[in-house]
Amino acid sequence: MTNKIRIHLADDHQVLIDGLSNLLQTVSNFEVVGSSLNGNTVYDDVVKDQADILVLDISMPEKDGIEVLKEFSQKGFPCKVIILSSYDDLKIIKEVMKLGAKGYLTKKCAGENIIEAIEAVYQDQEYYSDAVREKIFSIFSQNNPKLNKNVYIENPILSPREIEIITLICLEYSGKEISEQLFISVNTVETHRKNIMKKLHIKNTIGLVKYALKNKLIAS
User: What is the mean pLDDT of residues 124-153?
Assistant: First the structure.
C-alpha cells in the first residue's frame, strides 16, 4: 500500500481551510492531517501531525508566513512548504524562496494548481503557478535580448524550471547568478544542471548550448 502524502493547512480563514481540505481529500493518496489558524502554532502543529507538506498563507495572525519560515529555517524544516498567498509581489516571492519555500501559488489559482503543486513538491521539485513563474522570468528576460520570450512552450523532456536553468546557463550566467535570479540555492542549481545533463545525455555546456539553439530556447 502506498503511503499517503500528509498535508497540513495554515490559513487564518477556516472557510478556505475547509474548502482546500474537501478538495484535497478527493485525491486518494492525499491526507489532510491538520490545520492552523495562527502563525504561532504552525511549527508545533506540523511536527505533531508529522506532515510531509505544509500549505502556508503569508497573512497569518500573531506570526506571518515569512516569520514562520524563519522559524523553520532556524529549527530545521520538518516538512516541505508551499506558499499560498493573495499576493504576487516579487519581493515577497523572492524572500520566501530564499527562506526555503518550495512552491508559491496565488489564491486565485489555488483550486486549479494545488494538487499538482503538492505532488511536485513532494517529489523534491519546485512549483510556481504560471503567473508567478512569468513574473519571476520577466526579471532577467528584460535584460537578455537573446532570450526566447516564448520559452514556456511545452517541452517533452524538460520541466519549465529546467528550461529556465538551461537557458540561463547558455546565456553565461554563473551558478550563483542563476540562484539569485531564480531565488534558489546554488546547490539546487547544480542539482538541476546534473539532472538536465542526464536527461539530455549531454556531457558539457557546449552540448547544452546546441540543445538550446536547436530547440529555440535562445536566439542564435
Answer: 63
